[in-house]
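pasting for ref
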Amino acid sequence: MSNSRQLEARFLDNSEKQLVDSSHHPDVGDLSDRELADLRRNLRERRNRARDIANRQRREIRGKGAPRGESRVSEDAGSREKLSVLSSALQRVNNETSRRERFCSRQALKNNAERALEMRRAASRPRRPKSRRADKGMHAVPNERAPDLVNRMEVGRVSQFVKDSQARKDNRQG
C-alpha cells in the first residue's frame, strides 16, 4: 500500500525526508546517473539501519533482547513504518535504475543493428555466373546414384520367405 507524502514525513527526520522526496516521480527522473547511484546507496544505508532498529525493538518487546535504553520499548510501530517508507523509496529508485538500464540496452541494440545493416550494404557481393557455365548456358547434371536393378517388392518377398523358413525350422521337433 502506498503512503501519502504527508504520512511519510511523520516517520522521517529532515535528511531522510529529503532522500525520500527525491525518490518520487518527477524528481527521480531529473537526477543524473551518478546522483541516482548516490541516492540509492544512501537509501540502502538508512533502510538497513531502520531495519536493524526495528528488529532490535521487536526483540525487546518479546523479551529476548536487552533494553537499549533505561526502559524497554513498548511498541515498534514507528520503526516499522519508517522501514516501510524507506523500503518503498528504495524500490522506486531501483525501478528507475532498471528502467534506465533497459533504455540504454535498447539503444545499444538499435545502434548495433544499424551498424550491421550498414556493413551489409557496404560489403561487395561476389560475382557469380547466372548458370553453371555462363558462356555455354545450362547443361544436364548426371545422376550419381546407381540405378536400382532389383524391384523393392521382390526384396521384401525374399526376406519374408527367409523369416518364414527359419520359423518352420525352429518349430520342428527333434
